[in-house]
Write a structure and sequence with these properties.
This protein is an alpha+beta fold and 429 residues long. It contains 13 helices and 24 strands. β13 and β14 form a beta hairpin. The two termini are 42 Å apart. The protein binds S-adenosylmethionine. The site of S-adenosylmethionine has 17 residues, from α7 and α10. S-adenosylmethionine (SAM) binds next to α7 and α10.
Length: 429
Amino acid sequence: METLFYERLKEYFKDDYDLVLEKLKSESKKSFFINGIKANSDVILKMIDFNYQKTINPKVYYYDDEVSIGKTKVYELGLIYPQELSASLPALIADTSDVHLAIDLASAPGGKTINILNRLSENALLIANEIDYKRAQVLVSNLERSGFSNVIITNKKTSDFHHLDGSVDLVILDAPCSGEGMIKKYPEIIKEYSLANINQCAKRQSEILEDAYRLLKKGGQLIYSTCTFAYEEDEKQVQDFLKRHRDMKLKKFKIADKEYEGMAKFTFLDDMEGQFMAYMIKEEEGEARQVKYKKTVSNKLVEDFIKDNLNLDNYYLYEQNGHYYLSLQALIDLKDHVLRYAIYLGDIIKNRFEPSHHLYRAIALKDSYKNVYHLSEEEYDAYVKGLELDADVKNGYYALFYKDMQFAYGKASNGKIKNKYPKGLRKTY
Ligand SMILES: C[S@@+](CC[C@H](N)C(=O)[O-])C[C@H]1O[C@@H](n2cnc3c(N)ncnc32)[C@H](O)[C@@H]1O
C-alpha cells in the first residue's frame, strides 16, 4: 500500500513532489495554543520559561523539541494547549460575533473546541460532542483543565441531535479521515493506506455532513475540516455536498492576511502537517424545531453548599445521573449520553455535598469563591504532588490560586489544607 500512498502524493503535489519527500524526512514543528480565557497572552507568555517563536496564528507559538510540554506549570494551569499549527487554523475562519449556539460534532481531544471557545462570547453555548467514549473522557479532562464552563459535553452519534435541527449558528466538523497529513506523527498510516479506506472515510464524512446541514439555522456557518490531502474527502466532498444542498454557499475567509475562496489546504510545503478546511453558509431557512430547556432542580444540601461557598445571585442547578451541575445560563436538554452540563458542581456522598475539581477550575467563577487561598511556588509544587499544606485559616473549602490563577481546591481543617487534587493529575516526578 506504500506505493499507492506515494503515487497519490505525487499526483497531489506534482512538481513539488521531491520537495515534499524532503520535508517528510524532517520532524514536524511543535507548537502550543495560548488559552486566552485565563489571562491575556502577555501574562501567559511571561510565565513561560522555555524558548518559543511566533507563527502565522497570533495565538500559536512554536517551541523547542526538547521541552516536555505536559510537565510544565503553564500546561497544568491550563494556560496553553499543545497543538500543531495547521490544526489551529480552521477555528480562525468563523465569524463568532453573533453565535449563540455552536456545536463541534467531532470534538476529542478538544483542540478546535478550545480554539473556538476562545473566540466565542461567554454567553454563547457550545456543545462539544465525541462519539468515542474513551476519547470523550480525554475531552472532558482537557476542557476542565482549560477552565471552560459554557459547554455541554456529549458522547453521542452525530445523528442524535435532530431536536436541534435548524437552531445552530455554527457547526464545526473536524471529520474522522484517512489522515494523510499526519504521517510524520503516525507513519503506520502509510502501511494501512488503501483506496477502500479513503472511500469509507468519504462515505462517513458525507453522512455526518448531512447531520451538520440539518442542524444549521438560516445564516448558520459550517466549518468542515480534515487532516488529509485526499480529494475524495476534501474538495470533492465539499463540491458534492454543495450540489446536494443548493442553499449552502462557500464563503471567502482570511488567514494571516491571505484570502481564500471558501477552501484552503495547508501542507508539508507550508512547514505544517496537513489540514484542509472549507467555510460554508446556509442561506435558506431550515426545518427548525422548538429547542427544549433542561429542568432545573432544587436540593437543600447543594444549595446550602453554594450559599456558603460562592457569591452567586443567579445560577441554574441541574442534576444528571446523580451528579450536580451549575450553569450561569439556561441549558438545552440533551437527554442521554451527556457527560457534563456546564460546570460539574459535585455529588452528594453519605448525606454530605462533595464539590468537584471542575468547580474550582471554571474561569467564569474566578471572582465568586468565598474562601480563597494563594499558594507560594513551594506550596504549589507540594500540592500538585498530593501533599497537604499548613495554613492558619478557618475551616472550610478553599479555592486555591497560584500566581493569580485558580487551579484546584482544598479542605481546610484545624490548620491544614487537605489535598483534593485529583489523583490522576498528581505529579509523580
Ligand atoms: C480529527 S478527530 C477530531 C479532532 C478534534 N476536533 C481536535 O481538534 O482535537 C475526528 C474525531 O471523529 C471521531 N469519529 C469517528 N467516527 C465518527 C463518526 N462516525 N461520527 C462522528 N465522529 C466520529 C473520532 O473519534 C475523532 O475523535
